[in-house]
Design a protein that fits this description.
- There is one protein chain.
- It is built from 3 helices and 2 strands, in the order E-H-E-H-H.
- By secondary structure, the chain is α+β, with helices and mostly antiparallel strands.
- The relative contact order is 0.18.
- The C terminus is likely disordered.
- Keywords: Plasmid.
Length: 93
């Protein structure tokens, strides 16, 4: 599995009394598609993140660097993705 880094641009026209503070991308998308706002979302760039740069890119986004390992995004020494135990248990455990 390749890990991608995509940079997007969101342009929105909205009423002054509906500031974007604390709005999620989902809420903004809803207001653009279904609500009273006008807007467009576009892709500015998209690139594959090399395996040895995944943790650094996660940290650049404000993560402590643990998320990629938890998600199984980091390859082992042979280049294969590491299977992660998601904590699910059966009655046989």
């Amino acid at each position: 599995m390749k890990i991608m880094k995509t940079v997007i641009s969101v342009t929105i026209m909205h009423p002054e009394d509906e500031p974007l503070d604390h709005k999620s991308l989902g809420e903004m998308g809803y207001q653009i598609d279904e609500g009273d706002w006008l807007g467009r979302i576009g892709t500015l760039s998209e690139e594959t993140v090399p395996p040895d740069k995944i943790v650094a890119e996660a940290k650049a986004l404000g993560n402590d660097g643990s998320f990629p390992e938890c998600m199984g995004w980091l390859p082992d020494d042979a280049g294969e993705l590491i299977e992660q135990d998601n904590g699910a248990r059966t009655g046989d455990d």
